[in-house]
């Protein structure tokens, strides 16, 4: 079975799912795990498929596979270590659903990515020139739970059936999306998208299996698939309304069964689009409609109180978009005045007595502009009774209480120009409270009642169709800032605003400036700010970017502040934004780009510190993927900042249980260079780390160990010997280094010349000069290089005897014409300089030059 083929399929699945999840809600983060199940094999190859930065502008990110030990490690990473692994996706699905309510997110400790070992050639260390001369801000979590979802693809690979089991972990979903996914899966659009992706996205063969080439059944991309799913989902809602809320057969057993073809036949989406795409007297469609079963309308007397009701045979068909668009003008969502309809007909305009709804559900369509609408599910939720009391009535007592029913409106789906989304554009009070509580952690005015008031204020501000902003700071900050900005705002007497007026008070340009006790200090505030390279988004408007610049300015103090940005298109952003893995990748990318694009001498310490603070802040909220630290280590290494390079490699390796042999080899390179930049105690410490990591590699590398690992440990031992002040320890280091060089020589090596040269330098340190000369000469002949001439000449110049030895050995190895080579000329020149003082050198030269030297020996 081709591993590359399976990996390609994993990457394709990740690409599709990531794109779909991001299109539904760009705040969502996907983690994808895969387990390969084959009938003829009991082993289960397991991996996490993830996206990493590459450090290249041509390809900023790429998808890789992180190999895991097996299914048990997958479950452990997902916080499901107490679940036994079974090949049954249905059983896993039920087990996950049972745990969903109380489940907490698992720490996603990264595992080793088995990168190709390029150290064999390009990373081999030549030891040339290396010898010695003879208050942190609080974390803001965006979500407390992860949506977990298992499914599988049945494939035929190279003629054999294979099941690829995938488990998705989707982070940062809002509470409504999470609850709907598990509590009411038949109404979860996210759940439907995932179900249909695995059941209906790829083309199957006659046996109902997928082939080696994953081909889209309908030749659609991710956006096209989601648009199809939106149509199918509305067809599903139509079916639900038609059947008066009968149980959905897809989820009778708590898990997805088969696509219902009736959903494709239903045309609810076309009817809605016929209304949403029409204007009336130049105005875009705004208004609301309730969809409920005709049975509910006919049997639940008093449920609808009609303001106007059409004659039964004169109802308006949903296909008549032109007439319905006019009727929308009469509706008022704030006053609960709706168009009343079933799946076919509009019956009138009225309000609903929600107390009569009981356990049934109705659907609300909110039209929010041209070709934009939301589908909502409305249910009743019984809350604790109030006004409990006992009253006497003549000779008996009565217990009385008030039954409270909460009207729960849950967004199921938003459509914008036929593109679906979930969770976006809505104000999330829970997220706002977490952000505000974290930002103002030391402010005593941040109390639950004030947070509730601020939530109400913000929710009212979201009704402003032209967009606005709400700035929240501490009371003293608000007073000072409004005073400073008085010429570009309208200061008011500090007051808690009536929610009924907020929509009108935000109709002018500028922000509401409020404090943490929910009091407003100014309206129409035009914010100033501080421009930074990493701040802003060119794809967003002026309101979004000015808010980010203003917040950046306040950070200089630092001054805590939260800003709510309500855009004209309905998007709601809270800043500071929750930190996700994507946020961390963005910081790393900017950091890497700065290092690469700035000359080494011009890299600013303050700029580096700023990046590191942002990265540390992200690391307090999310687990930063190891690959990001390794990329920073690589980037600093290429910039020849070996200290920084080592810091980032160490950040992961010192605390990881994984061997990470490939990256430990990169760390060795950093230590080697860093060691010779350091001085004194620092040099001793780095030299010891250098040795420790090389010993770790050999002890834990198993079958991965190669000759260069012994070469590097020999270098580390040599370095420690050079700087040791204890003669016995120095000798011990040198002897162990020699053993490692000899061991590396015995293994298959592609650059043996480097091994000879490194061992020659060690011999020189051990004062075994003749052996050093022999190895330098051997290094030259391995690659026919002159790059070692200078070092050999240094050793040969220690004494006349060594010069004669070098002359003789080189002439023997080179044979005829040795004196015409570059090294031969240097040796002869040095001999001529010494011949007057050293007759023995003159004699040796005479013998070699006149051709009386012995014939060349074979290599020794």
TrEMBL record:
Probable sensor domain mapped to chain residues: 268-377
Renumbered residue ranges of the record's region Disordered: 96-119
Coiled-coil residue spans: none
Top-level taxon of the source organism: Bacteria
Pfam families: DAC, DACNH
Gene3D superfamilies in the cross-refs: DNA integrity scanning protein, DisA, N-terminal domain (3.40.1700.10), Tetratricopeptide repeat domain (1.25.40.10)
SUPFAM superfamilies the UniProt entry points to: TPR-like (SSF48452), YojJ-like (SSF143597)
InterPro entries attached to this UniProt entry: DACNH (IPR048555), DNA_integrity_DisA_N_sf (IPR036888), DNA_integrity_scan_DisA_N (IPR003390), TPR-like_helical_dom_sf (IPR011990)
Domain (DAC): residue spans on this chain: 459-575
Name assigned to this protein: Tetratricopeptide repeat protein
């Amino acid at each position: 079975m081709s591993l590359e083929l399976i990996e390609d399929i994993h990457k394709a699945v990740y690409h599709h799912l990531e794109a779909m999840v991001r299109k539904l809600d760009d705040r969502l983060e996907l983690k994808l795990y895969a387990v390969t199940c084959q009938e003829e094999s009991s082993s289960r190859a397991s991996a996490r498929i993830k996206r990493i930065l590459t450090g290249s502008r041509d390809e900023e990110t790429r998808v890789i596979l992180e190999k895991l030990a097996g299914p048990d490690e997958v479950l452990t990473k997902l916080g499901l270590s107490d679940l036994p692994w079974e090949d049954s996706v249905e059983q896993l699905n039920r087990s996950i659903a049972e745990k969903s309510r109380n489940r907490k997110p698992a720490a996603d400790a990264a595992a080793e990515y088995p990168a190709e070992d390029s150290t064999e050639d390009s990373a081999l260390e030549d030891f040339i020139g290396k010898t010695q001369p003879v208050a942190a801000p609080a974390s803001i979590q965006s979500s407390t739970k992860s949506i977990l979802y298992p499914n599988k693809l049945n494939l035929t690979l190279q003629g054999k059936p294979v099941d690829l089991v995938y488990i998705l972990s989707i982070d940062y979903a809002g509470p409504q999306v999470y609850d709907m996914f598990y509590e009411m899966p038949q109404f979860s659009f996210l759940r439907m998208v995932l179900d249909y992706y695995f059941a209906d996205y790829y083309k199957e063969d006659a046996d109902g299996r997928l082939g080696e080439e994953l081909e889209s059944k309908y030749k659609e991309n991710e956006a096209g698939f989601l648009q199809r799913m939106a149509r199918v989902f509305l067809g599903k809602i139509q079916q639900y309304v038609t059947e008066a809320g009968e149980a959905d057969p897809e989820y009778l057993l708590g898990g997805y069964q088969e696509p219902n073809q009736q959903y494709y036949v239903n045309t609810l989406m076309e009817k809605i689009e016929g209304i949403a795409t029409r204007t009336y007297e130049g105005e875009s469609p705004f208004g609301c409609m309730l969809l409920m079963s005709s049975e509910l309308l006919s049997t639940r007397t008093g449920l609808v109180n009609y303001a106007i009701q059409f004659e039964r045979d004169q109802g308006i068909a949903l296909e008549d978009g032109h007439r319905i668009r006019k009727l929308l003008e009469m509706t008022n969502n704030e006053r609960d005045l709706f168009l009343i309809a079933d799946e076919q007909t509009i019956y009138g305009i009225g309000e609903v007595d929600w107390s009569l709804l009981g356990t049934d559900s109705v659907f609300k369509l909110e039209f929010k502009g041209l070709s934009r609408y939301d589908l909502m599910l409305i249910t009743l939720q019984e809350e604790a009774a109030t006004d409990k009391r006992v009253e006497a009535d003549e000779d008996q007592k009565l217990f009385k209480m008030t039954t409270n029913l909460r009207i729960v409106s849950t967004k199921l789906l938003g459509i914008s120009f036929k593109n679906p989304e979930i969770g976006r554009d809505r104000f999330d009070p829970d997220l706002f409270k977490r952000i505000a509580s974290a930002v103002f952690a030391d402010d005593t005015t941040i109390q639950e009642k004030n947070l509730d008031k601020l939530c109400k204020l913000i929710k009212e501000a979201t009704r402003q169709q032209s967009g606005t902003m709400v700035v929240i700071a501490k009371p003293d900050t608000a007073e000072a800032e409004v005073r400073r900005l008085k010429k570009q705002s309208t200061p008011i007497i500090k007051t808690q605003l009536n929610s009924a007026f907020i929509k009108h008070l935000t109709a002018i340009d500028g922000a509401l400036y409020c404090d943490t006790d929910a009091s407003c200090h100014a309206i129409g505030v035009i914010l100033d700010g501080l421009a930074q390279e990493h701040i802003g988004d060119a794809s967003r408007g002026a309101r979004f970017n000015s808010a980010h610049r203003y917040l950046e300015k306040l950070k200089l103090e630092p001054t805590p502040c939260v800003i709510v940005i309500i855009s004209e298109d309905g998007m709601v952003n809270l800043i500071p934004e929750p930190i996700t893995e994507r946020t961390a990748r963005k910081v790393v990318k900017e950091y890497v780009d700065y290092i690469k694009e700035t000359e080494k001498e011009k890299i600013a310490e303050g700029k580096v510190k700023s990046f590191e603070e942002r990265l540390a802040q992200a690391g307090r909220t999310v687990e930063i993927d190891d690959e990001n630290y390794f990329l920073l280590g690589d980037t600093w290494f290429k910039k020849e900042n070996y200290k920084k390079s080592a810091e980032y490699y160490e950040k992961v390796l010192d605390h990881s249980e994984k061997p990470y042999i490939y990256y430990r080899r990169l760390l060795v390179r950093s230590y080697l260079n860093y060691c010779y930049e350091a001085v004194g105690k620092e040099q001793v410490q780095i030299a010891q780390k250098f040795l420790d990591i090389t010993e770790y590699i050999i002890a834990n590398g198993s079958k991965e160990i190669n000759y260069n690992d012994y070469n590097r440990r020999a270098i580390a031992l040599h370095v420690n010997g050079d700087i040791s002040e204890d003669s016995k320890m120095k000798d011990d280091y040198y002897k162990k280094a020699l053993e490692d060089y000899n061991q590396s020589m015995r293994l298959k090596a592609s650059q043996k010349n480097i091994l000879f040269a490194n061992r020659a330098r060690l011999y020189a340190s051990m004062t075994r000069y003749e052996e050093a000369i022999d190895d330098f000469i051997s290094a030259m002949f391995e690659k026919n290089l002159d790059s070692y001439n200078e070092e050999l000449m240094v050793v040969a110049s220690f004494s006349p005897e060594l010069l004669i030895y070098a002359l003789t050995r080189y002439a023997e190895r080179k044979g005829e014409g040795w004196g015409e080579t570059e090294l031969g000329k240097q040796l002869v020149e040095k001999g001529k300089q010494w011949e007057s003082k050293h007759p023995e050198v003159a004699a040796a030269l005479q013998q070699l030059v006149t051709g009386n030297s012995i014939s060349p020996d074979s290599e020794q």
